[in-house]
Design brief:
With 286 residues, this protein is α+β, with helices and mostly antiparallel strands. It is built from six helices and 14 strands. The longest helix has 9 residues. It is globular, with a radius of gyration of 26 Å.
Length: 286
Amino acid sequence: MATFSPLSLLSSLSTTKTIHTSSSLVPFSPNLSLQLSSDLRFSASSALTSQCLSLWVPNKYNISMSMEAGVGVMGTKVGMMTYFSPDGDVIPVTVVGFHEGNIVTQVKTQLRDGYNAVQIGYRRVRDKKLSKPELGHLAKADAIPMRHLSEFRLQSVEGFEPGQRLKVEEIFKEGDLVDVSGKSIGKGFQGGIKRHHFARGPMSHGSKSHRQLGSIGAGTTPARVYPGKKMPGRLGGTKTKVRKQVVVKVDSELRALLIKGAVPGKPGNLLRITPAKIVGKNIPKN
């Protein structure tokens, strides 16, 4: 898919534009180097050229990543329990606790970085647990040493600043839908039945294929196994996301979040919790 480049659009313009600097008028051409000094302020003579210049970023910043519905937080899985609602309903929930953290460590903008995003730090650690570059990065935001950093790409980063602490009770409310991602429990090398839910063969005495995989392809033609064939292999231990889970309760005193159902990983696992993405409602269709 071809990406939109403001420079290519400017190159297709037949007329020569003019950039107004603080001292003189400079004729603009596509071959003009954009490595201008930081204190030079310029504005294009036409609205189209001005818009293209404001959107221009270096080619190395052509970012392709998913857009989040809103800023999220990181938490730690505590375990599962039974929650009794005021109506008497029995709801299986996962308890998510929060260590010290969820502090904004960096704010990325479209003009400087090529996309809008907020970087969040989580879980305080001792200084000697981090390298000097990591400590220097956190020192720019006057943040405490934190183990984990996660980035949330947003449509707008207004209202966020480095060093800002995010509060779970202000981001999520009871009844909200959230997407929870984390590392699933590793189950080692497993067969096709457990890994891909294949049906087993007969368990009678004469059967010779109780739990075997069976045929994996034809012989002479194509004389090979197609890539992506579902076969036995390592199961679990990968990043997994469960979508549209319901927030049952937000406990500000215990700093805990009760989410209906199961979430990836075992107790103590790091979780990334974001508002559920609903296309056309809180994120654009494109």
